Amino acid sequence: VGSLLGGRGQPADLLASLLHEAGGLPGLMQRFDQAGLKEVFASWVSVGENKPLGAAQMKQALGSDAVAGLAGRLGLESGMLLPLLSQFLPQVIDRLTPQGRIEQEMPGAEQLQRVLAEVMKGGLGGFFGGRS
After folding, report:
1. Torsion angle, CA of 12/72/44/30, rounded to 10 degrees?
2. CA separation for the pair 107, 92 (Å, rounded)
3. pLDDT digits over 50-93, tens only?
4. Residue 49 carries which DSSP code?
5. Cα–Cα distances in angstroms (integers) from residue 62 to residues 48, 56, 67, 118, in the given order
6. For residues 16 and 109, what is the distance between their CA atoms, to the nearest angstrom?
7. What is the mean pLDDT of residues 123-128?
């Protein structure tokens, strides 16, 4: 099965890298807060419905350098990566916080792999070359 994201990195490794660079889930939450998107990130953590986030807002929250670095590791243009992040990051954060709060600042590789597999089964598998 072909992959939109090429084959240059495992999605769980790339997500772990993004979280590490942000300072874990609390650091990522702080980035969204500083971008004026605290309520959006909070909706992903809470047990309610996830608020959507556009590509431009995602770039604002994560920062151009982080997006460019991640895109480069994936072999993509930032413009292709941002809509994908806008789709899957809320679901990932939601699944990493099932109790409606951040309980683990830096999820482990196995947990990230499991969460990404769940998200991929939900319809994003084709983006990562997974099987639907």
Report:
1. 110
2. 11
3. 999 999 999 999 999 999 998 898 888 889 889 989 988 999 99
4. P
5. 23, 10, 7, 23
6. 7
7. 49
Contact 129, 5 (CB under 8 A): yes
pLDDT one-digit tens code per residue, 107-120: 988 898 899 888 87
Cα separation, 66 vs 87, in Å, equals: 17
Give me the amino acid identity at 47. V
Burial 79-103 (b: 16+ CB within 10 A, else e): eebbebbbbbbbbbbbbbbeeeebe
Tell me if 5 sits within 8 A of 128, measured CB to CB: yes
Q: Specify the pTM.
A: 0.81
What spatial distance separates the first Cα and last Cα of the chain, rounded to whole Å? 10
